[in-house]
Amino acid sequence: MGYAQLVIGPAGCGKSTYCSSLYQYCETMRRTIHVINLDPAAESFDYPVAIDIRELISLDDVMEELDLGPNGGLIYCMEHLQENLDDWLEEELANYLDDDYLVFDCPGQIELFTHVPVLKNFVDHLKRKNFNVCAVFLLDSQFITDVSKYISGCMASLSAMVQLELPHVNILSKMDLVKNKKDIEDFLNPEAKVLVSELNQRMAPQFAKLNKALAELVDDFSMVNFLPLDLRKQSSIQYVLSYIDNCIQYGEDADVKVRDFDPEDD
After folding, report:
1. Which of 26, 220, 241, 248 could form a disulfide with 31 if both were Cys (CB 3.0 to 4.6 A apart)?
2. In terms of pLDDT, which residue wins out, 220 or 158?
């Protein structure tokens, strides 16, 4: 059985930085992971790329040959990946063992994990290949101090949960840039009353019912909470990784190593 993280989130939220820091941490801990690039628009990496979608298709080539913009070109690239799951991806994954740990660095176009079925089909393919997969949704902590932006992030996270149907971990990235961490404590485990109160203070009265409905949606299902991630601290990376490992049951089927402490016979 293989294990995989699908790292998703809006553009600029720190997905590639997260993958790089995770790789460096695991290397320090003598644990093997393989980071795979699924972004056809990527230019450079701070981690060794195990598999690169740009070997299959490049966004620049698509935009030039088909006269598409960045968004349309990216959708085309991902649909091309979907068409080649049984050929190109199957051949690339054959180089890894059944118990390998893969981290997929995904593009930041929000349509890919909210309503376009490309990533959903990609996940289904991994499941058929006996992979336990977890969605890791990153949200920039710099935008969480504004409650309206926070609600938008929660809605995007819920959309990804519904679309992908995977164990799901939400992470507040770039915590090292937050000056006063007390400002975001209320957002890690949101409460409807607090959210409604702040939304009503910022928005016109005619939005009161909508604000209440959105806040209750987040609160009633208890599906949205966030883990803070400060990449400067190994303890923070370790905590997030252990949480994700628990979601995908990593290591639970490993053989128990028992050391014989019985004294030798005379």
Report:
1. 26
2. 158
